[in-house]
């Protein structure tokens, strides 16, 4: 028998076996043959059972949503009576992309396999008893309670409450012998994404693909629109799926901070300010409260400078925040003749900060309410960035790694230098912005005063402009 005859005989056998299958089974075969014929290499589920998370990092239009939908649907069908989670940034994303989108679950699963679809609850019931449930990542508390065999997390880097949602999901993915997650996203240097990348080869497998990997299947108009970003940082991220160092696009650069040599005694501090950014109280999940302690000193040459003496961030409810602030206020900085107490506490006048200001005033502590006016966070940091650029802000050097800041200060410097694109939170950004702004406006640091136009834009009165030229408090109304 020739090779051609053998192939024809095998085909006849396969056709006979296919004809014996039920209509649903035939639909499943057609589905899988069609998918594996059309799919690109980066869209196929990785081999092996050693991994628990497939991180699919891909550019816009690379087909990551289609790959995830196809894979999760197959898992749910291949394993009857199992439960699967789907999550996306918002409820609208769940419905419009993951379930009803052009590459969503309802598009890839053959009709005969679906017993019921509830669009309002984001639920798909398959005829084999498996269940697919969508929960928006914008509501982290909804992940409490349900349990699943695995799931698909779409556009992970775009989740507003990424850490909170991720942690809750880990508790819920607990059914079966081995759980599996698909995380499909255009990459951004968010903490969870970076942690998964660090776990590559351990229990995480990573597939990378660019927009060009699927360019033939994209509309010409889309190609023209997105490819205009080629050669830019945004293009590196959105087209080529590169993890861009968030500090590349920061308002403040790391090398602007000066290092206070390890082992060198503290300078004589003229004035110490503790700047607080209190967590908001109207969100589903509170941001941390942040604090930076700034000490003003006169170097041997040049103008007045600031040494960052301490910083911290913590998730504190208000009853725990008040005693923490009082304890920090009582800290003594320096030794011997250079010993000095904190002079003033600066608190942004919003959210939990309002109650904190009132309580500290009643306790007769020197607290000042800071009102940023109409300026947004980007504007506020930009206004004081020249102080840092001029080399007026020092950070203690690490005793272990020369040329680097101390470990306790690394998170603060990283957050400030990553803002606005890469920072998960921005409490240190607010603390440094309002702290340096206050010291500048009160006359402790002189770089160059704001123009009258800038001051007028921020609704500062003529009396306050006059006070800025001395060491009066421009916010102590």
Polypeptide structure, described:
This protein has about 475 residues and is α/β, with parallel strands linked by helices. The protein folds into three domains: about 1-40; about 40-245, 3-Layer(aba) Sandwich (Rossmann fold), CATH 3.40.50; about 255-470, 2-Layer Sandwich (Nucleotidyltransferase, domain 5). About 35% of the residues lie in helices and about 20% in strands. It has 16 helices and 15 strands. The strands form two sheets. Strands 3-4-5-2-6-7-1-8 form an eight-stranded mixed sheet. A seven-stranded mixed sheet has the order 9-15-12-11-10-13-14, sandwiched between helices. A hairpin with a 4-residue loop joins β4 (about 125) and β5. The chain is elongated. The termini are far apart. Residues about 450-475 have low confidence and may be disordered.
Task: Offer a few descriptive terms.
alpha/beta; Rossmann fold; Nucleotidyltransferase, domain 5; eight-stranded mixed beta sheet; seven-stranded mixed beta sheet; 16 helices; elongated
Determine and state the CATH class of the largest domain.
Alpha Beta
* Terminal residue distance: 100 Å
| Main sheet attributes: strand count, strand direction, barrel closure | 8 strands, mixed
* Approximate shape: elongated
Q: Provide the helix percentage.
A: 25-40%
CATH architecture designation of the largest domain: 2-Layer Sandwich
Radius of gyration, in Å, reads 29 Å
Give the low-pLDDT segments: 449-477
């Amino acid at each position: 028998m020739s090779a051609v005859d053998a192939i024809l005989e095998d085909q006849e056998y396969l056709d006979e076996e296919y004809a014996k299958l039920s209509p649903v089974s035939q639909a499943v075969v057609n589905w899988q043959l069609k998918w594996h014929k059309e799919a690109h290499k980066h869209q196929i589920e990785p081999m092996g059972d050693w991994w628990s998370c497939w991180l699919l990092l891909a550019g816009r239009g690379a087909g990551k949503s289609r790959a995830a939908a196809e894979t999760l649907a197959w898992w749910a069908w291949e394993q009857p009576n199992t439960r699967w989670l789907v999550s996306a940034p918002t409820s609208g994303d769940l419905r419009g992309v993951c379930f009803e989108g052009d590459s969503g679950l309802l598009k890839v699963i053959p009709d005969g396999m679906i017993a019921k679809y509830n669009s309002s609850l984001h639920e798909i019931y398959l005829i084999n008893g498996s269940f697919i449930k969508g929960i928006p990542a914008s509501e982290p508390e909804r992940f409490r309670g349900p349990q699943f065999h695995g799931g698909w997390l779409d556009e992970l880097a775009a989740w507003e409450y990424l850490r909170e949602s991720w942690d809750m999901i880990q508790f819920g993915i607990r059914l079966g012998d081995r759980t599996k997650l698909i995380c499909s996203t255009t990459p951004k240097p968010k903490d969870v994404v970076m942690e998964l990348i660090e776990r590559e080869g351990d229990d995480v497998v990573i597939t990378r693909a660019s927009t060009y990997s699927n360019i033939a299947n994209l509309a010409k108009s889309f190609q023209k629109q997105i490819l205009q970003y080629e050669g830019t940082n945004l293009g590196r991220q959105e087209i080529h799926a590169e993890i861009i160092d968030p500090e590349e696009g920061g308002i403040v650069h790391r090398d602007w901070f000066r290092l206070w040599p390890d082992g060198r005694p503290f300078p004589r501090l003229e004035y110490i300010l503790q700047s607080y950014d209190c967590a908001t109280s109207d969100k589903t999940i509170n941001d941390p409260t942040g604090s930076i302690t700034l000490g003003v000193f006169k170097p041997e040459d040049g103008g007045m400078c600031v040494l960052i003496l301490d910083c911290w961030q913590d998730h504190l409810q208000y009853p725990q925040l008040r005693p923490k602030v009082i304890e920090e206020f009582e800290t003594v900085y320096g030794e011997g003749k250079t010993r000095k107490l904190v002079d003033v506490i600066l608190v942004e006048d919003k959210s939990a900060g309002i109650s904190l200001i009132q309580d500290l005033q009643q306790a007769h502590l020197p607290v000042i309410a800071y009102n940023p006016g109409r300026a947004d966070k980007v504007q506020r940091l930009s206004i004081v960035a020249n102080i840092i650029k001029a080399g007026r802000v020092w950070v203690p050097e690490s005793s272990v790694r020369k040329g680097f800041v101390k470990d306790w200060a690394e998170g603060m410097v990283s957050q400030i230098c990553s803002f606005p694109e890469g920072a998960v939170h921005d409490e240190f950004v607010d603390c440094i912005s309002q702290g340096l702004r206050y010291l500048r406006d009160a006359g402790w640091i002189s770089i160059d005063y704001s123009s009258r136009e800038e001051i007028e834009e921020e609704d500062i009165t003529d009396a306050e402009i006059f006070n800025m030229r001395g060491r009066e408090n421009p916010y102590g109304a």
